[in-house]
Design brief:
Rossmann fold; about 350 residues; Dehydroquinate synthase-like, alpha domain; DHQS_C; 2 domains; 12 helices; eight-stranded mixed β-sheet; globular; alpha/beta
Length: about 350
Amino acid sequence: MSSSCVVASIRNGVPLRTVKVSTKGGTYDVVVGRDICTSTIFANLVEEVCTDPKQRVTKFFIFVDSNLLGLNSGLVTSVEVALASIVGADKVSLYCVPSGEASKCRDQKVEIEDWLSQNGADRRAVLVALGGGVIGDLIGFVAASYYRGIRFVQVPTTVLSMVDSSVGGKTAVDTGYGKNLIGAFWQPILVVADIAVLDTLPIRQTRSGIAEIIKAGMCSRADLFAELESILSSKGVEGLIQDTEQLRDMIVAGIDYKRSVVEEDERDTGIRNELNWGHTVGHAIEGMGVTGLHHGECVSIGMVYEAMALRAQGQLSNIAVQRLEKVLKCCDLPTVLPPG
């Protein structure tokens, strides 16, 4: 896998980290920092990727889930204002998607596509996915199929979506026969991860996202895993979350790991299967209907069970499994299925 592609910069006094992703399906930046969306930085970043005069933006369509709209209406308003500064307020529309995995379905996709047609979305429209993994996957798939492919921007609002679903171009909806069965590979033109949005989220959601960063460390970044061990054992997950710079750097490391994998295997035919570690069992747990567990918590349990299987096959040491269990517990993440 390729070496790190992280660039540090300061824009309008705000420290930023940019991960540059380059695939056959598109090249784009993942920009990470604090208070990006509530400053002029967001508008500048979007405008910079929409400068082609042949593809001048006609309208922006923002999609947000109902939970985020309730928790952080100020963020939504800031994004609306930023986009209005580019095309005018009358060319920015907002669509609220009901919160939850149930919205990641064919019926919701059709409803959104019809709404886009009714509101004048053409080939030069740009969709903005403002939310977690459900919003990103759903709107990415809409973007991939509407007019056979239009531009979209990812604005992930959870750690999990920042380090995982917003990067790599996988878009999909679920069906009654399984998760992510219908979809497409469609890369965004920009990803903006504003860690200030995490302040309004329950700590449990942030913990679930950190499970993906732990996965990155276990798979190929021994230095990242050791650093997480040190941080979480010394000050716990709450201490990490409260340290803005440290949290940003961990998120960037997780994103950069994902970048290195998708650049080598964009269409999931080989090494990208590595990203599914923990998800095979995790998705099975979700499919069992185990109540009360978040996606990241299911992945946490899945990582441990799959690590145990590797240990039984002689491919992973007992010490490695113990270290994994310990760091997950330090993050207050489950390592076994709940009773019942």
